[in-house]
TrEMBL record:
Residues 2-139 form the HTH marR-type domain. The lineage of its organism: Bacteria, Pseudomonadati, Bacteroidota, Cytophagia, Cytophagales. InterPro entries: HTH_MarR-typ, MarR/SlyA-like, WH-like_DNA-bd_sf, WH_DNA-bd_sf. SMART domains: HTH_MARR. This is MarR family transcriptional regulator. Gene3D superfamilies: Winged helix-like DNA-binding domain superfamily/Winged helix DNA-binding domain (1.10.10.10).
Length: 151
């Protein structure tokens, strides 16, 4: 395996990650959110309703920080708190997905269209390689996150 190619790919992957953070920060600012609030909102969109404790575990935030996050998102009418029917001490966070999409979709519209065109420019075999890479990379990142979180 070509060591120079591996170095270039590692640098490119880092650059991609940094550029992604910058873009998402810009989208968040335009939407009136902080970058981290925007990304945590993504967890709620992806996974749906969850307890505040589950959100704390998922994000790695303290329960106090999650309370602040929920307060900020609730003020923007993007989530609402509900008490669990079986245990009123348990707070369930319900994302308002239509409101979230109305806020964020226009900011991603052009990017999404260009991304889809970029993806369509690759051959099916190349797309399968990209898919395999991203699936394996996500697994590695989750494994690293779990080790760091649980040690």
């Amino acid at each position: 395996m070509d060591d120079e190619l591996i170095k270039r790919l590692r640098k490119l992957i880092q650059h991609y990650a940094y550029t992604s953070i910058q873009m998402h920060e810009a989208v968040a600012r335009k939407a009136g959110l902080s970058g981290t609030d925007h990304k945590y909102l993504g967890f709620l969109i992806e996974r749906g309703q969850m307890t505040a404790g589950e959100l704390a575990t998922l994000t790695g935030l303290t329960t106090g920080a999650v309370t602040g996050l929920i307060d900020r998102l609730e003020k923007k009418n993007l989530v609402k708190r509900q008490f669990a029917q079986d245990d009123r001490r348990k707070v369930i966070i319900e994302p308002d997905t239509p409101a979230i999409m109305a806020l964020l979709a226009p900011l991603y519209k052009e990017f999404r269209s260009k991304s889809e065109n970029l993806i369509a420019s690759f051959a099916e075999e190349e797309l399968k390689i990209l898919e395999a890479y991203f699936l394996a990379a996500i697994e590695l990142m989750n494994e690293t996150t779990n080790k760091l979180t649980n040690n």
